[in-house]
């Protein structure tokens, strides 16, 4: 890895991304046991049911958010343990590193100074604090390539039967690419749009437990 900021800025963007992905994979390798393999997902109903029942996993990747004149490019790490999730966003302008911790009943945000804020309306509260937002409550399902089962959804599929388009909770989600994760095809790139908010997510590594 190049640690000198001047040298890092001189690297082509494609090379910086190529260096970043193996590093994220190495972090996963050092963090715990090897990822377990998912069962065969089969058709859409099987995929939705099996992935909806997987409740111990994490991913690391990159996120880009734009909302009006605000936005950022950074890194994201998401860990799901049953209904409890913990997310780390590193790089938001004006926020530094942000930690989100929640479950089906409550969600808190911890900023870089250790200050904890309880969020009652996650998307609206985050935007009020920072000027940008992300679809916190449903992202755990969208990242797996399935709709949030708690909300109505309109879906569209690609030629391979994978979810390609999703309209849910005022968000339009497009799944751009799938790649192997846990032995099955899972989303690699997706974009979620809501009014003037655009969230682009690239998942570099999966781990299932």
Strand order of the main beta sheet, please?
6-5-4-3-2-1-11-10-9-8-7
Order of helices and strands: HHHEEEEEEHHEEEEE
CA-atom Rg in angstroms: 17 Å
Overall mean pLDDT stands at 86
Ends apart, CA distance between termini: 29 Å
Principal-axes shape call: globular
Strands, count: 11
Largest sheet: 11 strands, antiparallel
Helix content: 10-25%
Give the oligomer, counting copies of the same chain as homo and different chains as hetero. single chain
Percent of residues in beta strands? 35-45%
Total DSSP helices: 5
Main structural class: alpha+beta
Give the low-pLDDT segments. Answer: 1-31
What are the main properties of this structure?
alpha+beta; 11 strands; 209 residues; eleven-stranded antiparallel β-sheet; disordered N terminus
């Amino acid at each position: 890895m190049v640690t000198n900021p001047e040298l890092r800025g001189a690297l082509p963007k494609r090379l910086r991304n190529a260096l970043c992905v193996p590093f994220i994979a190495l972090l996963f390798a050092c963090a715990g046991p090897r990822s377990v393999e998912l069962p065969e997902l089969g058709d859409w109903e099987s995929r939705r049911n099996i992935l909806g029942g997987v409740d111990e996993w994490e991913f690391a990747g990159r996120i880009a958010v734009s909302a009006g004149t605000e936005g950022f490019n950074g890194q994201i790490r998401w860990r799901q343990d049953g209904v409890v999730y913990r997310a780390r966003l590193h790089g938001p302008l004006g926020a530094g590193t942000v930690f989100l911790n929640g479950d089906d009943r409550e969600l808190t945000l911890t900023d870089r100074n250790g200050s904890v804020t309880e969020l009652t309306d996650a998307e609206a509260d985050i935007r009020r604090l920072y000027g940008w937002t992300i679809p916190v409550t449903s992202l755990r399902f969208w990242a797996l390539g399935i709709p949030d089962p708690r909300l109505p959804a309109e879906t569209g599929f690609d030629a391979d039967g994978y979810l390609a388009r999703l309209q849910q909770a005022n968000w339009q989600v497009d799944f751009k690419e799938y790649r192997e994760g846990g032995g099955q095809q899972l989303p690699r790139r997706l974009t979620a749009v809501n009014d003037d908010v655009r969230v682009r997510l690239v998942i570099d590594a999966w781990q299932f437990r």
